[in-house]
């Protein structure tokens, strides 16, 4: 129970379904006394209090479990290291994979609990992960790192309902979080200033911004962690390109601290190699499969052929796009969905993008 409306209603529905429910709030912040500001961040003392009040209304036991150290090591440190390496990670995937459905689920199983229910917007059908009914709130992308075994012990009680109806239900049930704003941005950066957060963690690692066509140095920068593929603003470039067209970040080389910029036409990617492949069915396909790929949490789908391969000694995926795709960065997740209209909401698997071409 995060302290938000979704997990509160998820708990209420689990109680109503006849389950023996215990509410657990994860203390993930090392500064829990910091106040939540509007819709930014989470894991504050305020959120814990909101979760406790919801549990009281539902009449269920409530506990706070401290996972702050594990969260720092497995999520925050991984996030910082990935940016320092020129990647663009999504910490929500790491949190689901390593904290909520690993550390938390393992502790729950050791205490005799059968399943972990959360307020994520996704659905499970015969053990298969599917998109939520509410496409705008769908979180199947950030859950695609879960294994078949983890999914078997998961419940997503609100995935079959649109968010406005969840808020209405919360109000009917007397849950005070019915109108609480959703959390946005990265939960451990409540200011929303990712560049400043990374700068404080990584420090100054100067390098150059260079033109993709001419190789000309266009500007200096304080670290590759301040950039991501497709970025247009904040490049530190004073003069426009000779053709007057805007420049975008097209590649990042952390080893040389070089950020390369070029025209929008240089952003297209036709091939993706992903490492750390996870197939949600528990079994990798025997060969190439036609499917759809999504490379950002709220991005669109693109048709591809995905082939299981070995990348750096571990299971990976080679993804060939039918048409070039933009906005693809190393460190992002490539999530595969079934291609047809009947099963198009079905998650097939995922991998972490290692290379693009």
Quick description:
The record marks 120, 332 as: Interaction with tRNA. The chain has 357 residues and is an alpha+beta fold.
Explain this structure:
The protein is 25% helix and 27% strand. The chain is globular, with a radius of gyration of 21 Å. The model has no long low-confidence stretch (mean pLDDT 93). It has helices at 5-16, 45-58, 68-84, 91-110, 140-143, 148-152, 163-172, 194-202, and strands spanning 23-27, 62-66, 116-117, 122-125, 128-131, 154-155, 207-211, 217-221, 248-253, 258-262, 269-279, 289-294, 302-311, 314-325, 333-337, 347-356. The protein has three domains: 5-172, Rossmann fold, CATH 3.40.50; 204-266, Adenine nucleotide alpha hydrolases-like domains (SH3 type barrels); 268-356, Elongation Factor Tu (Ef-tu), domain 3 (Beta Barrel), CATH 2.40.30. The longest helix has 20 residues, at 91-110. Strand 13 and strand 14 (314-325) form a beta hairpin. Helix 1 (5-16) crosses helix 7. It has 357 residues and is an alpha+beta fold. The chain has a six-stranded antiparallel barrel with strand order 11-14-13-12-15-16.
């Amino acid at each position: 129970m995060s302290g938000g409306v979704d997990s509160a209603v998820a708990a209420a529905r689990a109680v109503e379904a006849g389950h023996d429910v215990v509410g657990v709030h994860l203390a993930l912040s090392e500064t829990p006394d910091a106040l939540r500001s509007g819709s930014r961040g989470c894991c504050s003392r305020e959120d814990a209090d909101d979760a406790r009040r919801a549990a009281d209304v539902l009449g269920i036991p409530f506990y706070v479990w401290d996972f702050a150290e594990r969260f720092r090591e497995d999520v925050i440190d991984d996030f910082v290291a990935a940016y320092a390496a020129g990647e663009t990670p999504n910490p929500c995937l790491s949190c689901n994979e390593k904290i909520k459905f690993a550390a938390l689920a393992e502790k729950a199983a050791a205490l005799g609990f059968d399943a972990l229910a959360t307020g994520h917007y996704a659905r499970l059908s015969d053990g298969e992960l599917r998109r939520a009914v509410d496409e705008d709130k769908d979180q199947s992308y950030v859950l695609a790192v879960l294994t078949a075994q983890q999914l078997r012990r998961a419940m997503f009680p609100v995935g079959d309902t649109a968010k406005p109806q969840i808020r209405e239900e919360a109000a009917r049930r007397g849950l005070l979080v019915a109108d609480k704003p959703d959390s946005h941005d990265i939960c451990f950066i409540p200011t929303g200033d990712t560049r400043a957060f990374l700068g404080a963690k990584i420090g100054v690692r100067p390098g150059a911004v260079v033109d993709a066509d001419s190789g000309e140095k266009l500007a200096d920068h304080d670290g590759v962690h301040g950039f991501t593929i497709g970025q247009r603003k904040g490049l530190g470039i004073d003069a426009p390109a000779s053709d007057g067209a805007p420049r975008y970040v097209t590649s990042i080389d952390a080893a040389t601290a070089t950020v390369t910029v070029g025209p929008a036409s240089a952003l297209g990617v036709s091939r993706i190699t992903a490492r750390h492949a996870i197939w949600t069915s528990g079994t990798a396909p025997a060969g190439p499969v036609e499917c759809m790929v999504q490379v950002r949490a709220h991005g669109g789908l693109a048709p591809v052929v995905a082939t299981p391969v070995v990348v750096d000694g571990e299971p990976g995926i080679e993804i060939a796009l039918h048409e070039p795709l933009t906005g693809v960065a190393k460190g992002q997740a490539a999530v595969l969905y079934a291609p047809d209209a009947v099963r198009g909401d079905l998650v097939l698997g995922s991998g972490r993008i290692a290379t693009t071409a």
